[in-house]
Amino acid sequence: MGKTLLSFGHGYSARALAAKFLPQGWRIYGTTRSAQKAAMLAREGVTPVLWPEGDLTESLENATHILVSVAPEAGGDPVLALHRDAIARIASRLDWVGYLSTTGVYGDHQGGWVDESTPLTPSTRRGQMRVAAEAEWRAIPGLPLHVFRLAGIYGPGRGPFEKVRQGTARRIVKPGQVFSRIHVEDIAQVLEASIRRPDPGAVYNLCDDDPAPPQDVIGYAAELLGLPLPEEVAHDDAEMTPMARSFYAESKRVCNRRIKEELGVRLIYPDYRVGLRALLEGEK
After folding, report:
1. Is the pTM of this model over 0.85?
2. Which of 7, 95, 147, 170 sits CB 3.0–4.6 Å from 14 for a disulfide?
């Protein structure tokens, strides 16, 4: 049987991985809630499965690898809520399972460094649900689980340029605040490296080499576009959505040494400057 990936919640990061694997002859099943997105996935060469209402019998029977990009809910992990028994039954014959989590599981470290051995002390509800979901997946006996804790994701279609061009970008300043981030192509190459070198039970931080204040990233985007620096706004005075404000509740620098030492990864975009320059070049 050839290599077959069942991708739950086949979104931005999973599509980047599929773009690497489809030319190599992989079969990929991707779940989506939308018929419109299902048609798009089919055009990309992915076998779409409407989920949660669709039938996963065929994809679970054929899967050699599983990737989970579905966010947890208050009641737990939605994939396991529906398919825990089916996944447990095939656990021993799977080659690899990847769960995409978040660096939010570490909580606030006031700008200090964290690595994969740092205790999980999430301060947001989202981070707490991720810790619970990681544990749910880990509890399935014999599952070759790999957990990937992702920093802020950017890439084509997800950069700061549009807001800067529209004049809606702001440089929100909170003293001491830093975020780690990761380009979507680097996510894909880390996942591929892990699949080539499976290590069940492993946890990896996915981030670049340069945790940076968010206002610096917006400022650099404006500089690349040759536009004026967006307005600087103090964090306490800024109007933000509850989701955006929750990001500012935590500040940490995330260490990525393990993906380099254990998986041999060399980042394509080691910092936001390289990444933003490439995004702008890609637009041209």
Report:
1. yes
2. 7
